[in-house]
Amino acid sequence: MNLIIQGLNVLNSDLRTLAKITGADAIEKITAQAFRLTHVTQTEDISEYCTEAQLDFAFVDAGRKLQDFKLIAMDMDSTLLAIESIDEIADMHAIKPQVAEITLQTMRGEISFEESLTRRTALLQGVHQDMLQKVYDERVKLSPGAEKMLQQAKKHGLKTMVISGGFTFFTDRVKDKLNLDFSAANVLEVENEKLTGKVVGKILGREGKAEKLKQVQEQLGIKREQVITIGDGANDLDMMSESGVSIAYHAKPIVKEQATYAINYVGLDGVINLFAI
Fold first, then answer.
1. pTM here?
2. 87 classed as catalytic
3. Of 75, 87, 232, 269, which is the active-site residue?
4. What CATH topology corresponds to 2-63?
5. Topology of 68-273 in CATH?
């Protein structure tokens, strides 16, 4: 096994201590924020130490390469994007606290995603559709490291996909902006240029996200083991379970517990640093 250490400020003293704890053969620099400790012994002591030092860690098979994968699929809100798009719509409509509270309940797994989206979308009834473009233009921003991660993924032959419980208005634009290969999300119902407070068709929620991922896997003719998924909330768990490697990105505890790896401090480019290139 190799131990990948990442952080906004990785100290030499931390690396030396971790190398001693794990019996590492060597310390290799990947980037200024990422290091590989080779041929280590996996130990539970690492988790406590890295939490205290605010470092991300991952025990990865030494031979695992990025090229082993064929698809990287990401949640959109608070994962690929550094915002919750529905919360930003609500903010412009002066109802953000109500919507944000429902969002948090969902991410914590306290209510189903379908119930959550139904309740949040209903609060948007009467919002003019032009406000969606205003949110996209003024509020949408990528998570740190997103573009670097995607560039490296494409360079090494991986297809890219965004799967969101949010809305196609945003995923379509993000897909075009970042040149992603696939996207899936919910469709907002609009009448007379205003939101009705409803979603068109069946809600794409926890189970739906997993189904969309499996459809793309079948389309590409790839195995589950060749997929990397990234998410942050409970509604991502089914999707993440359909992949060979799942990554909890700045995620809720329930997601960290079930993911293969967790990234809590660095940006999305930290995903690429986990694997040999």
1. 0.94
2. no
3. 75
4. Alpha-Beta Plaits (3.30.70)
5. Rossmann fold (3.40.50)
